[in-house]
Design goal:
Layout lengths: L12 H10 L8 H13 L4 E5 L2 H11 L7 E5 L4 H9 L3 E5 L21 E7 L8 H11 L2 E5 L7 E2 L2 E2 L6 E5 L12 E5 L5 H8 L5 H5 L19 H12 L1 H24 L22 E4 L3 H13 L15 H6 L1 E2 L6 H5 L2 E4 L7 H14 L2
Parallel strand pairs: 2-3, 2-4, 3-11, 4-5, 5-8
Antiparallel strand pairs: 1-9, 6-7, 8-9, 10-12
Helix pairs in contact: 1-8, 2-8, 3-4, 3-6, 9-13
The structure holds pyridoxal-5'-phosphate.
The site of pyridoxal-5'-phosphate has 14 residues, from helix 3 and helix 4.
Length: 378
């Protein structure tokens, strides 16, 4: 069976992980973590980047930094991974869902403003499949209503919006380095901070509520417990694994984009014939660059998708779908609300299927995937 995903591995991971172990520095914030943080800061022109234990914990930190009060609301799409919503709950806020747009499956920016109440404090956008949300529109709304912007850029590492790296545009950006993402450290993530006024509290939240980071920099004599907090430092072993991939980030990116483009070019005739739908770059974002995180296509309906996935599997190719909209999930019903009409979220989520796409997928395998997709329609 051709796998749906293979965790990225470039080879030098073993060398760097061994180095971390031989240095007897395997807890957090050692040399590899610092190198990774600095790499993102310089490559993405980010004010501050802190590696975390997961994309989820980066989101948790972002929401905690927003300091919500009970009843404060955060607007987000329902078509996303649970973490976007759970982090809002961790931060003490209430998730309010709005509909998505069918071309990118991203939040429909035209639906945000109507969902704003006097309790709204932030907008959490998700750059689905590494395709940018309409950030100019989101920023304009946030400015008008004095809202924070949190970018769930778990899938958007190395993507850009009008020249800016995804994750660096809003107040906070969150990356994931889970093994299913473009760059991995097993489990891990990073928080991007735009305004340096948040740096100190971010370090404290990340270090169990203590000012230990300041202590290590020699800025204070002894460290102490000063605020709420958690443990968001990844091990150096994990950071060493990620460091190997950052050294080859462009190669990984090109490789994924080549597979993505091959799928797109080969399947475009099916889309032109009206048999499937493919992702499109919106006209207002022709200068946006995605990162080949995911290749999705849409079938006619749920029934058609079920048959399609079964057909792919029967032909030895593992295909998957996601997400079940959060507002229809048990916790979504309990803790959240949906504002406006669910015109696309449920309907489009039921038609979407994802093809295998990972670093190192061979041209031969990609050709087999395409041939098998085409066979379904003949
Ligand atoms: C993967 C992902 C997350 C969570 O990242 P983890 O590192 O697994 O915690 C959050 N949001 C989105 C959109 C994701 O794809």
């Amino acid at each position: 069976m051709m796998p749906f995903n293979v965790a990225p591995f470039v080879g030098d991971e073993l060398k760097y992980v061994e180095q971390a172990i031989r240095n007897h520095k395997i807890s957090g914030d050692g040399a590899f973590t610092k190198k990774c943080n600095a790499w993102f800061e310089s490559r993405f022109a980010a004010q501050k980047v802190l590696l975390t234990t997961s994309g989820t914990s980066a989101l948790d930190m972002a929401m905690l930094l927003c300091k919500f009060k009970a009843g404060d609301e955060v607007i987000l799409p329902s078509y996303t991974f649970s973490s976007t919503a759970t982090s809002i709950l961790v931060g003490g806020g209430v998730p309010v869902f709005v509909d998505i747009r069918p071309d990118t499956m991203n939040i429909d920016e035209t639906k945000i403003e109507a969902a704003i109440t006097e309790r709204t404090k932030a907008i959490a956008v998700v750059h689905y499949a590494g395709f940018a949300c309409d950030m100019d529109a989101v920023i304009a709304i946030a400015k008008r209503h004095n809202l924070k912007i949190i970018e769930d850029a778990a899938q958007g590492v190395m993507s850009t919006y009008k020249g800016q790296a995804l994750g660096t545009i809003g107040d906070f950006g969150c990356y994931s380095f889970h093994e299913t993402k473009n760059y991995s450290m097993g489990e891990g993530g990073a928080l991007v901070i735009k305004d340096s006024a948040f740096n100190e509290r971010a370090e404290i939240l990340r270090e169990k509520g203590t000012n230990r980071s300041k202590f290590f920099r020699g800025q204070i004599d002894k460290y102490t417990w000063v605020d709420v907090g958690d443990s968001y430092l990844p091990s150096e072993i994990n950071a060493a694994y990620l460091w190997a991939q950052l050294q080859r980030a462009d190669e990984i990116n090109q490789n994924r984009l080549a597979t993505w483009q091959f799928y797109y070019d080969e399947l475009k005739p099916l889309a032109d014939a009206g048999k499937i739908e493919l992702p499109t770059v919106p006209p207002e974002c022709q200068e946006c660059q995605h990162n080949g995180h995911m290749f999705w296509l849409k079938l006619k309906d749920l029934d058609d998708r079920t048959k399609f996935i079964a057909h792919m599997r029967a032909n030895g190719i593992s295909c998957v779908f996601h997400y079940v909209p959060l507002h229809s999930a048990p916790a979504g019903k309990k803790y959240c609300r949906f504002h406006g009409e669910d015109r696309y979220t449920t309907r489009e989520s039921e038609r979407l299927a994802r093809l295998p796409l990972y670093y190192g997928l061979t041209a031969q395998d990609a050709a087999q995937v395409v041939a098998t997709v085409k066979k379904f329609f003949t």
